[in-house]
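Handout, section 4.2: multi-component inputs.
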Amino acid sequence: MNMKDFLAGLSDFWNEFRRDKAGLVGLAILTVALLTIIFEPLIVPYGEVNSRWRDINYWEDNSSGAPPAWTNLFSSAKKAVTTTLSKPKVEEIEGDGVSIFRYEFGYDYRYDEPPLDLVFRAEGWGTFPLLVSVERPDGQTIDLYQYVAEGLDGDDLRVTLANDSKSAAYQFLAANASEADMINFDSYSIKPMQIMFAEATPTMATASTPLEGEYKFVVQTMIMSEDVRIEKPHFTVVGAVSGALGSDTGKRDLFSGLVAGLKWALLIGFVTSFISVLLGVLYGIVSAYFGGAIDTTMNFVYELFVSMPVLPILIVISAVFKPSIWFIIAALVIFSWTGPVKTVRSMAMQIKEETYIEAARALGAGKWRIIFRHMLPLLIPYSFASMALAVPGAILYEASVSLLGLGDATITTWGQILHDALSSGAVLNGLWWWVVPPGLSIAIMGMSFAFIGSAMDKILHPKLRTR
Amino acid sequence: MYIWFALKRIFRGVVMFTLLMFVFSALFNTVSEKTQRAQIREEVTMKVNRLKDLKPEQMEIFRAEETERLIKMYRLDRPVWERIMVRALNTVTFRFGNSTIMKSSGGSRLVVDIIGEALPRTILLFTSAIAIELVIGVWLGFKKAQKPGSALDRTTSIVTMVVYGLPSWWLGMMLMMTFVYTIKIFPSGGILSVPPPENGLLRMLDVLWHMALPMITLLLIGFWGLAYIVRNIVLGILQEDYIMSARARGVPENKVLFGHTLRSAAPPLVTMGLLSLLASISGAILFEGIFSWPGLGNLYWVAVQQNDIPVLLGDLAITTGIYLGGLVFLDLIYGFLDPRIKVGGKA
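Output:
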């Protein structure tokens, strides 16, 4: 088979494939998936999702168990969305020997329900004071929190205003709300976020209305020597709704997890189906070509493997050996190469008797040359369809093993997200944004490969075609 | 002779099972011996604690002797190949030993009892599901093959592909979220209400009520693939010349379909159909855990969570046995339906 024939065959194949709408849909989904994997760093909001999925510190500023941001479209009370304010307006006021740095973060608040928390974060060096305040749209300024950071050396600075600004918020409330209302409150029981984002009215303690508009969060510090500095200052607005697909109860962003899981699903699917189908096709050809005792033995080994229920064995192996993802893929290959054997063997039986094989043998071609040069190329197209159809099975098996909590803990897969959801009671508590997307992704990937595979199958087995 | 054919097939199945048990025994040798040694330690400690009037030296001697006796008894002092053989033979004869943590509802720590309790429940759920799936699947497959390319054929084929990679346990989770916790019409799991109803009839209804949602889940996914396989087999036969000649002779369509076609379609139909169901069920084993249906699949969940290796291995042996039994059963039906098989004796 030379290059020209191959290209002609390919273009014939494409001409037929293109007429199958389902096949095209499958191909489109696969293309989108591949593009997502290529551009993952640009799409994912949390860049270190792959290495720090199980690191609770990485996720601590996100909201916990929050629905997706777009659920605001369907609810009457709009909830604040989790966002990061990372581009402050920086002003430096020089004094004699000291300079005052002023970071101003603008935040446009247009919601009915205030954020759950406001977190200020930075990396600091040396000793310096810190003053956090807010300028509200109605012109009032509240000094929220003061604090002196001492002897830092690139350490994380973290100020959570829901806790740290309680006394300031209480004073602000006491200055505005009527005394009758204030009886029921003390500086521990109040909710600073509610107060900060409410109109300053006498009734604000009991019936607050949200104050919409442009808020300015100001962080001021005094730099007294050369080696004192602050880097990467940013605010996180921790909203009651978060991200494209919400967050789980471990505060992890589910969209990031889902995108991170995509490449593993495809990798598991592709590698497993490619190797196992290739092995199976070769096995079938060898078994058919040699015949006799070799055929009988190979048949017996084949039957032995077919008699094993794959998933239960996989579960026990994973429970006993605590495998890595490569081990799981290897195990999947070991148990799923049997798929194409029977069909290939019967096809190879026919091909073996063709006259051109006889001619090749008469010309002195060795058996492996005949197998690889004359028989395998004829069966390769068939194996492509099998490969596509074997992908969903592999993805499903890995997901099932991970669902039991037996997956590779160093990576993120959809099955593991579902395991976490199940063990944290997401089903019980109706956290649908945690349960639906991973399973749906598995189903959609499976569907697209089924579409592609059956479109190929129809081209390669014309008898199945509808009239 | 059908009886010889059947005996040969059953014997072959037993050989396969024994062979697989040897493979498993070798594969999981290290871990099962580790648990066995731990069990021996536990047993000896328990005995030592019971003997209070002994001096410490005597106690040590007793402990050493007892440990040695048990190690001898479990043949842990023999060479590796012998240990593997013995363990495989024990498995084949269903002597799985004691569990490490789990207990049956009767309080027994024998793995056989724990599995024996779960087995009927799995069989109850899956055989009912298979029976319904078979009926719907075959009927739908025939309908599809009758008018290939029709709206029905095309839409059901698309649905088949849509559910192709759909995990049944995920569908179970979704249905539970909807019909158990949001719209509260089904129980959240188990096989009987707590406390179970006294009356026999009410008890049966209670089981059915608990079975409903798992069944619906299995059915929603189950029969599509089967219908597709049936369609392809039947379609292949409908293109044969004798069908065309039957139609040309004016044989009524229904007779062509269920007389001529079904007769020759039956053998591959039964094999392919049951095989696909068997495979899908071995894949659906996990979904019992979602519904806490206390069968063999749920046993995997519990055993994995409690890291109970003997139960896990016993469960695997039984699941493999059932799977193999299903395959042998298929061969028997095939031979019954297709006379050529049993005469030739070669498949």
